Amino acid sequence: MKRAVNRHIVVFSVALVWLALDQLTKAAITARLAVGSGFSVIDGCFNIVHVLNRGAAFGFLNSAETDWQFWLFLAAALLVAGVIVHIARTSPYSCALFVGLGSILGGAAGNLIDRVRSRAVTDFLDVYWGQWHWPAFNVADIAICLGVLLAGVVLLRQGREDDGGK
Fold first, then answer.
1. 114 counts as catalytic
2. Could you report how far apart the first and last alpha carbons of the chain are, in Å?
3. Strands across the sheet containing 132-133
4. How big is the CA angle at 61 (ends 54 and 74), to the nearest 5 degrees?
5. Per the residue annotation, which of 22, 114, 123, 126 is the catalytic one?
6. Residue 46 phi, psi (nearest 5)
7. Annotated catalytic residue, options 22, 114, 126, 141
8. Which of 22, 37, 76, 120 could form a disulfide with 140 if both were Cys (CB 3.0 to 4.6 A apart)?
9. Could you give the CA distance from residue 140 to residue 37 in angstroms, rounded to a whole number?
């Protein structure tokens, strides 16, 4: 009989991997590029840049004049961590769900560390096409997006199975 790995081990191991990747890449950018500088990786569509984002996703609430965002994002990160622990504890066993939850947790922790350390998140991946630029992002943002996608698919499937497949 195959024994399932403890759900919390999966969640926290995945979170630690994403957190380490995020912090290592941000440290490399911070050490090598001044804020506001960058270079082209693939001409016409991808740059490495060094920007600081005091706001939320896509620069929402990005303003140096207000400090209340820090407290809002701190509370949101703690709430997300609590919800993740609750879902991991109460959901049927699903390694895919726990990988998704761990990805969200690791990404949230990576950006929270930046906020606590410098009141801003280091972003460095700049994707664009012509004059259209996607807002700069980082490894933590990738972890969160992939985690939400994976956990969402699993939870939607679980919901359909609970409804009898309707």
1. no
2. 31
3. 38-42, 46-53, 121-129, 132-133
4. 60
5. 123
6. -155, 125
7. 141
8. 22
9. 21
Instruction: State the chain's mean pLDDT as an integer.
Output: 89
Q: Above 90 in pLDDT, residue 110?
A: yes
Residue 166 tokens read as: 């309707």
Q: What are phi and psi of 53, to 5 degrees?
A: -120, 110
> pTM surpassing 0.90?
no
CA 112 – CA 2 distance, rounded (Å): 37
pLDDT-above-70 percentage for the chain: 86
**Which residue type does 62 have?**
N
Query: Is beta strand 121-129 parallel, antiparallel or unpaired with respect to 132-133?
Result: antiparallel
Residue 22 known to be catalytic? no
Q: What are the pLDDT digits (tens) for 128-141? A: 998 898 999 999 99
pLDDT at residue number 159: 73
Helices 95-118 and 68-90: crossing angle in degrees, nearest 10, is 160
Strand residue runs (E) in 20-82: 38-42, 46-53
Amino acid found at 124: F
12, amino acid identity: F
Gap between the Cα atoms of 5 and 83, Å rounded: 21
